[in-house]
Amino acid sequence: MKFIFLLIPFFVLSQEHKASGLVLDKDTKAPVPYVNISILKSQMGTSSDEDGSYSLIIKREDLEKKVKLSSLGYKDTTFVVSDFLKFDKIELSSLSEELEEVMIKENFKEKFLVINNVKKKYIVGGIGGLNYAPYIFALHFPFKKDYSEIDVIDKAKVHLNKVHFLGGNRSMPSKFRFRLFSVGKDSLPGADLIKEDIIITTVKNQREVEIDLSEYNLTFSEEGVYVAIEWLYIPFNAYEYTYTKRKSNKKYTEIRYAPRISWLKQKDKKYRLALFTSGQWLNFKMPYIKEDEYIIPAISLTLSN
To answer: Rounded to whole angstroms, what are the CA distances from 219 to 200, 226, 284?
Structure first.
C-alpha cells in the first residue's frame, strides 16, 4: 500500500497569524507612533506604539481582506492582509497640504462662552476602548448665531470616568489623541483642523483634561466643528476587564483600553455623533436613556472673542 503525503504550508493551516513590525516615516525613517491599523470589513485592529512598533493577531478568514494604516499628517496606506503579514517595516508618506489662510484677530479674550457645559450631576457612565479595532469617536458641535462675535475656539475640556476592573472601578493613567475636524461629505468629519499631533497623557485619578487651543487661531465655522477622541491601542492603555454574561455564572476576561470618557445626559437633539472604525467614518446613533433623554460624550468647548 502506498501512502501519499500532502505537504501543506503551516501558513495555510493555521487559524491565526501574527503580524508585527515597525511603521516608519518614508523620508526621515523615523518611527511613526500611534498609527491606526484596521482590517477593513472586520473588527480587528491595533495601534503602533511610541517606538512605531505594532503587533496584531490576524484571523484566517481575514487573509484576503485589506488592512488600512492611517495617521494624522500621513497618507492612508492600504495592503492586502496576506501581504501585510510579510512586512517587518512599513513606510508612510507624509501629506503635503497647503496651509489654509487663517484670519488673525486682536484677541483680548474679554468674553467667553462655554458650549455643552458639563455638570457632574448629569454625568452617567462612560465609554472606553473595547476589545476590537481602535476607533475615533467624534461629537459635532453645531453653529449658533450667538457664536458670530465670540467665535475663536479657545479650549476644550474632556471629562474622564473610572475603568472597570474585577472587584471594582478605579482610575489609571492613559494616553489618547485629541483631534478637531471640519464638516465634510455627508455631514461626517472631514479634514483635520489642527495639522499636528495632540497626544494627551492623563495621570491616575485625573477626572478631567483641559486642552488649550488658543494658539491655533481657529474660528468656529458655520458648518460647526467635530471634537474627537482617538483611542490608542497600545500596551500603556491596556487593562484586563472581567465580566459575567447574563443568565450565566461563567466569567470572561478580555483586554480593553483606557481612557474611559464620561457620558453626559442631554435633552437637546442638536448634537450628533460619528465613529471612525474599520477605516471609514460612520454616523453613530445617539444613545438614549429614555425617549426624551440622550447621552453624549462629556466634552465642552470654550469660545472667546
So the answer is: 22, 13, 26
The separation between CA 17 and the C-alpha centre of its own chain, rounded to angstroms, equals 25
What's the chain's length in residues?
305
Q: What is the pLDDT of residue 190?
A: 96
Tell me if 261 sits within 8 A of 161, measured CB to CB. yes
Q: Average pLDDT, stretch 219-234?
A: 95
Residue 110 · residue 152 · CB < 8 Å: no
State CA 223 to chain mean position distance: 22
CATH architecture, domain defined by 15-92: Sandwich (2.60)
Domain extents for the chain? 15-92, 112-304
CB 151 within 8 A of CB 103: no
pLDDT of residue 300: 96
Q: What does the alpha-carbon distance between residue 43 and residue 254 come to, in Å, rounded to a whole number?
A: 15
| Predicted TM-score (pTM) of this structure | 0.86
Cell numbers given for 174? 492613559
With helix as H, strand as E and coil as C, how does the chain read?
CCCCCCCCCHHHHCCEEEEEEEEEECCCCCECCCCEEEECCCCCEEECCCCCEEEEEEEHHHCCCEEEEECCCECCEEEEHHHHCCCCEEEECECCCCCCCCCCCCCCCCCEEEECCCCHHHEEEEEEECCCCCCEEEEEECCCHHHCCCCEEEEEEEEEECEEECCEEECCCEEEEEEEEEECHHHCEEEECCCCCCEEEECCCCCEEEEECHHHCCECCCCCEEEEEEECCCHHHEEEEEEECCCCCCEEEEEEEEEEEEEEEECCCCCEEEEEECCEEEEECCCEEECCEEEEECEEEEEEC
Q: pLDDT digit string (tens) for 83-108?
A: 999 999 999 999 876 545 444 455 55
Indicate the residue type of 290. Answer: K
- State the cell numbers at 62: 481575514
Q: Are the C-beta atoms of residues 157 and 227 closer than 8 Å to each other?
A: no
